[in-house]
């Protein structure tokens, strides 16, 4: 019986295993050094914040794996011997495979800062990071202050987690405004305000110089590079991005760059070896996506795709239109299509922000053809299906605004802002777009 071995039990690896089992009776083994069972990585923050227990993050009961004949092996893969199709483990074990799927995810970036490996320094990616956080920051008596280094999505999640336990947080962001390599100026400024309004000490345009230790080898303070200021702290969160977790194959015959190089079928240069999820790097980027995408839903899609190929239905990975969502403390964020930090030469923008400073939309479109290119939503929920359809059909900015009510899926009793948004666009662009009413009525609506 053909043996499929999957290294990594995140969303990519587990989706692969589930779909191979749906399609075949092949022998399946999932290898992981992190946890016994698959858990939802994006839910780790809610465990620390007290909204759920760790076992609630596990979508499948422990009997699920045996029932579906998916073997689990806990261990750290040290090397992959491609000629003999053998995995060698740190504890001396070995495992033979017929086909191998590398789904080892990401690891937090470290940039050689002095003290970066001290006790009390952690990322916020693995289950072990959550355990470390509980040890070093259980409350504001044990942890008088935490410093977070790096201003991406994981950084703001960690800030919110610590803030929920009333632990003072200093947030070091090297950019001049939060996440302004991704977000345009208006949205970035909105998130700056949200961070500050929550009592978090946001420091923009600064870098970490070093992390200092006490006599027990534990964090005691950090030094800011630009000013030399020393900030006393008990915990340092390193959230300056992530990199593919592929050190164990760097010396193998498998082709790597930043990640494991794959073609559109998620195949590596070695027959019967595939790579998916955060650790996979496309030879050529798909559409305007990045060659490496550390995003939950693309990992799941890659798992579904590679399972088909392994089960003799070789299909190309096609992720479709870009979308993403996140939450910046109390402000929900969704993006569909492309809204760059800076518009390109052929692009025009429309920006609307509510007077409360916590809601906005930013639409990007082609100024020559008026084709809709993308939208950012902050504080207003909009339907993925609507924007996926208008992007596929290459609809105009005018069409999108006319039908904007159809996109909204805020709950009942929420105020609707579409008339105000369309009126502002008409005023700025000297147009006469009429908002079409929803096909179903809202009976209750508050002002």
Automatic annotation (TrEMBL):
Annotated Pfam families: Pyr_redox_2
Cofactor(s) this protein cannot do without: FAD
Superkingdom of this protein's organism: Bacteria
Keyword set, alphabetical order: FAD, Flavoprotein
Database matches in Gene3D superfamilies: FAD/NAD(P)-binding domain
Residue ranges constituting the FAD/NAD(P)-binding domain according to the UniProt record: 3-288
InterPro entries membership: FAD-bd_OxRdtase, FAD/NAD-bd_sf, FAD/NAD-binding_dom
Family in the record: Belongs to the FAD-dependent oxidoreductase family.
Protein name in UniProt: FAD-dependent oxidoreductase
